[in-house]
């Protein structure tokens, strides 16, 4: 009997220690995710380093708790962090990085239509083949997040609008599942997204003024 209780105590101790370790790593990942958003708002290249490390941690954490698709999604985010860093430093015609751009409404409508079709297909699979809650909304937020991350790497101004909608829907999902702290965190994200849009729009206007001055100087 004593061996049973000793084994039980050791099991609880090990589980508690592992939970503490996971919580510590989760806290680091969250802080780096917030750092990524703040740095991205400022157009700072180090945002991609924060994104890479944060998503690498989440990849391992999600795998450990058997959230396999979330883990796979974060592998994609890691790859996009590398791509985003390359685009911001080596992309563009002159290979000196990309400037903030605004895409036409028609381009966004095509993106929205294509992503919506994919989300419906994924949502249907989740609704019929899994026990997922809110399968179509869950699929939509995931698919649009994948697409919007690409827009961030391309420095498309409207990425912030997409994130606003994605985060708002995510808040509804988290509140519905009782994840109130995560919902509060996403409320904070929405506020930061608004500031991000304003900052990028101002930076884009400054870029346009600089380009106009450069063109004028070149023709004189």
TrEMBL record:
InterPro entries: NMN_transpt_PnuC. This is Nicotinamide riboside transporter PnuC. The chain crosses the membrane at residues 20-39, 46-65, 71-88, 109-127, 133-153, 181-200. Required for nicotinamide riboside transport across the inner membrane. The keyword Transmembrane helix applies. Keywords: Cell membrane, Membrane, Transmembrane, Transmembrane helix, Transport. Belongs to the nicotinamide ribonucleoside (NR) uptake permease (TC 4.B.1) family. It holds the Pfam family NMN_transporter. The keyword Transport applies. Its main location: membrane. It is found in: Cell membrane. It is a multi-pass membrane protein.
């Amino acid at each position: 009997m004593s061996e049973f209780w000793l084994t039980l105590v050791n099991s609880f101790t090990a589980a508690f220690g592992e939970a503490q370790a996971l919580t510590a790593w989760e806290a680091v990942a969250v802080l780096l995710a917030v750092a990524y958003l703040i740095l991205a708002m400022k157009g700072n290249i180090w945002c991609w380093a924060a994104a890479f490390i944060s998503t690498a941690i989440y990849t391992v954490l999600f795998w450990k708790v058997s959230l396999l698709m979330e883990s796979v999604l974060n592998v994609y985010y890691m790859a996009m962090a590398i791509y985003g860093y390359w685009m911001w430093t080596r992309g563009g015609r002159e290979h000196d990085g990309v400037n903030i751009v605004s895409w036409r409404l028609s381009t966004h409508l095509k993106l929205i239509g294509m992503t919506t079709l994919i989300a419906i297909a994924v949502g249907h699979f989740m609704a019929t083949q899994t026990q997922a809650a809110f399968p179509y909304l869950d699929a939509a937020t995931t698919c649009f997040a994948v697409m919007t991350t690409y827009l961030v790497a391309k420095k498309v101004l409207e990425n912030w609008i997409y994130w606003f909608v994605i985060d708002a829907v995510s808040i509804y999902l988290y509140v519905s599942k009782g994840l109130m702290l995560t919902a509060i965190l996403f409320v904070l994200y929405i506020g930061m997204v608004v500031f991000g849009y304003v900052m990028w729009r101002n930076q884009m206007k400054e870029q346009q003024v600089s380009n106009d001055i450069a063109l004028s100087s070149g023709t004189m």
